[in-house]
Amino acid sequence: MKRKTGIILGIIVIIALIATGIAAVMGYVYGGIKVPDQRVVVHYNVCDDKVADKINESIYSPDKLRQVVRDIEKKNHYLDDATCVATVYFYYATNNDLGRDTQKVNELYNKMKSLSDKGIYASGKLIISTNVEQLGNLRNKQTLPRNKQ
Hints:
This protein folds into two domains: 1-36, no CATH class; 49-140. The chain is mainly alpha-helical and 149 residues long. The chain is elongated. Helix content is 54%, strand content 0%.
């Protein structure tokens, strides 16, 4: 009976170690050492590659882009994903039909800048520039270079 219990407990421990190892490899568990002044940054991936493809397909059609932006704004934590924020910012900064909501544009730019300062950047798959300084030019209605691919 003791041997059977030991085998069962051993199997459970092995499964738990394997599961922890898989979670660490996938990035769900952080087992590193950090110094006291470092903070762990939580990164949300709301706008994945599929959304980036939708954005690229709709970038030259204001109606399609409006729909993509509305879908993005309905998602939880979209303000914590640099790709989402860059897209919503691009839409509000370039769409003249909105009367240029300056406060919203500035809030989105500041959020984008904050994410960039934390090391969270927009996807390089976007055909719009994802450089924060270049996107900042949109606030002043300057032209925006295309992202190199």
